[in-house]
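User: quick one, sequence for these tokens?
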């Protein structure tokens, strides 16, 4: 019996930012609102959201989407954050979601990859952030 290729399950953008000193990095509720806006910008449907602020600083926010999820974890004392957006299907674009967040937070350093989820292999493709043009 021949092997049937596994279907593609979705696209997952993973981003790390540094040299980011936006006040939202320490505002858990504000980050959740930002993720909700990013989900809409990507064409996603937000099902629910959650956020938590850590003491003395830092926050996590998450939105569960009909298409999967978007989340952010911050270290404002370091000017750093980790962000990811995962969408299934062809309706929503996780690149647009992450780009929306990056445009608002305006970090000076961004490293991100687009992961093709499912299928025969996990494929990572670097994604340039167009808003960073020459520092």
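Assistant:
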């Amino acid at each position: 019996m021949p092997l049937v290729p596994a279907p593609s399950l979705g696209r997952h953008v993973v981003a790390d930012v540094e040299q980011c000193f936006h006040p939202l990095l320490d505002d858990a509720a504000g980050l959740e609102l930002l993720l909700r806006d990013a989900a809409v910008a990507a064409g996603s449907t937000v099902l629910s959201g959650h956020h938590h602020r850590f003491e003395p600083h830092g926050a996590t926010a998450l939105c569960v989407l009909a298409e999967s999820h978007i989340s952010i974890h911050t270290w404002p004392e370091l000017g750093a954050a980790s962000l990811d957006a995962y969408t299934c299907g062809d309706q929503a674009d996780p690149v647009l979601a992450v780009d929306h967040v990056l445009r608002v937070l305006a970090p000076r350093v961004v490293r991100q990859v687009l992961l093709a989820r499912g299928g025969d292999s996990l494929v990572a493709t670097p994604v340039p952030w167009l808003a960073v043009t020459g520092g």
